[in-house]
Specification:
Keywords: Methyltransferase, RNA-binding, S-adenosyl-L-methionine, Transferase. This protein is of the alpha/beta class. The protein is built from 19 helices and twelve strands. The model is unreliable at about 5-25 (pLDDT under 50).
């Protein structure tokens, strides 16, 4: 994990000593920036990965400082429940009595003390200064007392004291140790054991807590994998794992001939584009296209087959992101890209039986992408599932109506939860005699351990494949 870069101390002070005189100490800008990220994510339901670049630009942070802020903010959000348990054990007031800005600062300090290579005196003094800045002197004294108790033990010791025994309550144990809500642990355990009964869910939960690297995708006909810096991805023929640096500085990415895309998402597009199809193969549709990463790859693949991809998105602002992804930096369209249509995916404005291939990358809980969206685990609730599943079933039913006899629909979710994956597909198969499941096993023979919960489906896993936990099912209209 990044270590806080050293900064010059005020003249005449020792490490950890505050400058003398009447002026209050200046708050460390990297801690202030990380606190601003936490505040924005908490108060505006924002996404960490979208807030970070704006905050870094605002404070003029780059290089090691930017890396420090990214790890501090993302890591703190990711492990929030674990840190809250530790803070609660060190505070007689209880978490509910703490003002949110003070609690956010304590979380940042706890992450530095327990999970980063930051000297204890630096973590303590800078966090106390931060609390004084966002609250007052009294709160700063309280924070100092709490964090000294936090620093008295390492993370393993705290977990041993606070977590219930795994033998007695495995869900509660894993929820605290790996910082996932208990209902999420239970759903992921059930989903993992449906495909891999011998896997330990703790390996999956631990993988969720490792920030993913950057993966690039070369869009066929526009760029090649060979011109992208990095190690080729093991499963997608179009990707590389970026060695480091800013992906926007890569020429092909800047020109939008290539993009940033998880390998699992690349495999969704290639699975639909590469599936055998009898007869006409001219009209493709991405039904839930926003923000457009899969659309851009699908369009490039469609162009190579002489087809045209239409992108469909319900939300107007997300449709704008799709258009951007389907447009090169010089203003020309990505080859194979057709119209971007705004509308309701459960009632799309296309003639029944008029399409050849349709991708339904359905809205879901997103529990397969917790590595890159650390805040998602704390926002989703178990009660969200029913509404999402009903939407997923309607979207799949609509897409099956759109394809011609012999046409293909790929249903995908960035969630392994069984009610969003196997149950949705089984429901569609039970309700329609004109639909059959196409076996994706041969196409994923090069991806070991990718068998899904239904025979012929695919389930990718962070701990097995280093990808988001994408589910894929290919259906044919008979």
């Amino acid at each position: 994990m990044p270590e806080r870069p050293s900064r010059p101390r005020p003249r005449g002070t020792r490490p950890g000593q505050r400058p003398v005189g009447g002026r209050p100490p200046r708050v460390d800008v990297t801690r202030l920036a990380a606190h601003e990220v936490l505040t924005t994510v908490r108060t505006q339901d924002a996404y960490t990965n979208l807030v970070l670049p704006a905050v870094l630009r605002k404070h003029g942070l780059a290089g090691r400082d930017a890396g420090f802020v990214t790890e501090l903010a993302s890591g703190t959000i990711r492990r929030r429940s674990t840190y809250d348990a530790v803070i609660g054990a060190c505070s007689a007031r209880g978490l509910r009595a703490l003002d949110p800005p003070v609690l956010d600062a304590l979380r940042l300090g706890t992450h530095q003390l327990l999970s980063m290579r930051v000297p204890a005196h630096a973590a303590l003094s800078t966090t106390v200064d931060l609390v004084r800045h966002v609250a007052n002197q009294g709160a700063a004294g309280f924070a100092n007392a709490v964090l000294r108790k936090v620093a008295s033990r390492d993370l393993d010791d705290w977990l041993q004291e606070l977590a219930p025994a795994r033998e007695a309550d495995p869900v509660a144990h894993d929820a605290l140790v790996h910082a996932h809500p208990a209902w999420v642990v239970a759903e992921l355990r059930k989903a993992l054991h449906a495909s891999h009964p011998d896997d330990d869910v703790s390996d999956l939960l631990a993988a969720d807590n490792v920030a993913p690297g950057v993966t690039l995708v070369a869009r066929p006909g526009l760029s090649t994998r060979g011109e992208l810096p990095g190690e080729p991805t093991p499963y997608s023929p179009h990707g590389v794992h970026l060695d480091g640096g800013d992906p926007g500085a890569v020429e092909a990415v800047a020109q939008r001939r290539a993009g940033v895309q998880d390998e699992g998402s690349q495999l969704v597009a290639t699975a639909l584009a590469g599936a055998d199809l009898d007869g006409r193969d001219e009209r493709w549709l991405d039904l839930c296209a926003g923000p457009g990463g899969k659309s851009a790859l699908l369009a490039a693949l469609a162009a190579g087959s002489g087809a045209v991809l239409t992108a469909h998105e319900r939300q107007l602002h997300r449709a704008g992101l799709v258009r951007r992804n389907l447009t090169l930096a010089d203003g020309t369209a990505v080859p194979g890209a057709g119209a971007v249509v705004v509308g309701d995916g459960t009632r799309p404005a296309f003639a029944p039986g008029s399409l050849d291939r349709v991708l339904v990358d359905a809205p879901c809980t997103g529990l397969g992408a917790l590595r890159r969206r650390p805040e998602a685990r704390w926002r989703r609730r178990a009660e969200d599932l029913l509404e999402l599943v009903m939407l997923q079933r309607r979207l799949l039913a609509a897409s099956l109506d759109l394809v011609r006899p012999g046409g293909l629909v790929l249903y995908a979710t960035c969630s392994p939860v069984l009610s969003e994956t196997a149950d949705v597909v089984e429901s569609a198969l039970a309700q329609r005699r004109d639909v059959s499941l196409v076996d994706l096993g041969p196409a994923f023979a090069h991806v070991p351990g990718s068998r899904g919960p239904l025979e012929g489906t695919v389930q990718l896993w962070p701990h097995r494949h280093g990808t988001d936990a994408m589910f894929l099912a290919l259906l044919r209209r008979d």
